[in-house]
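Look over this one:
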Amino acid sequence: MRRITAALFGCLAFLTGCDRPPKELTVDGSVFIVTEGRENIKMGLVTIRVFKEADALLMVKAQKAAVDTALSSLRTKISQAKDDTVRSGKLFTDADTKEAEGKTKDHLGYALLDSEHVAQILGLDNQQIKHQLLIRQKTEKASEPQGKTDKVEVAHDLFIEAYALTNSAFKLRSEAQDLVPAVKATMEEASRWPQTCAVIYFAGLPEPVSTAKTDADGKFSLKLPAKTRFAIAAEAERTTPAGRESYNWLVWVSVDDDKGKSIMLSNDNLFAANSSESVVMVERP
C-alpha cells in the first residue's frame, strides 16, 4: 500500500511539473543610434513591445499584401522617373544645341550689317525690336545699291531664324524642367521606402504580451520565458539640423539558457537592415 501511495505521489508531482510555466529570465537591452560622426545617441523613453512568435508571423503574413502593392506602385514610378530623366537630359541637350545655333545666326546677322546698324541693335535682346529696326533699315536702304540692301535682307532673315531657334530652345528647356519635380518626388519617395514599409508593418502589430520603457541611458529590462522566441518592436524619433529622423526595430529574441540575455537595438538591426535578427526582410525598390 505504501508503495502504491508513493507511486501516486510521484506521478502527481510529475504531472504538476509538466503544467508549471516556463522559467522567466531577464532580458536586458539598450537602444541607441550611432551617427555618421560616430556620436552615440542614447534613446530614452522608447517603448519596447514584446509579441508572441505566432502573433508576429501572422501579422507579417497579413501585411505582406499591402507592402507588395506599395512596392509595385513605387517601382512603376521609379521606372517612369528613369525614363523622364533620360528624356529630360535629351531635351536639355537639344535646347543647348538650338540655342548655340541661334547665337551663331545672330552673330552672322551682325557681321553683315554696317557699324551704324550694329550700334543701333547691339544690346537689344528683344527680337521683335530687332525685327522692326531691320524693316526700317531695309526701307531706308531701298534706294541704295543692291548689294547693301541684300545684306540687310539676309541679316534680317538670320535674326528671324535666330529668334525661332532661341524660342524653340526655351520651349525645350521648359519641357525638360517640367519633368524634374516629378522625378525628384519619386526619388525622395524611394529613399523613404524603408520607413514606409515599417509604417505598414507596424500598423498591423498585435497586442503585446509585455512592454517596457527605456531610461535616460536608453536601457530597458524584460522578463521573458526561457526557450521561447518572441518579437520585439520599438520606435524612436529625434530632431537633427537636417530634420526629423525616425527609427524602427522589429527583431527576434529568445533566451536559450539560464543566464538571461542582453540585446542591443542599434543601426545594425534597424527595421530595414535585414540583419539575422530581423523579423521582416525588406525588399528594395
User: Anything to note?
Assistant: Residues 231 and 252 are 5 Å apart (CA to CA). Helices lie at 2-19, 53-112, 115-121, 127-140, 146-191, 193-203. Strands lie at 24-34, 40-42, 47-52, 210-213, 219-225, 229-240, 243-254, 261-265. The longest strand covers residues 229-240.
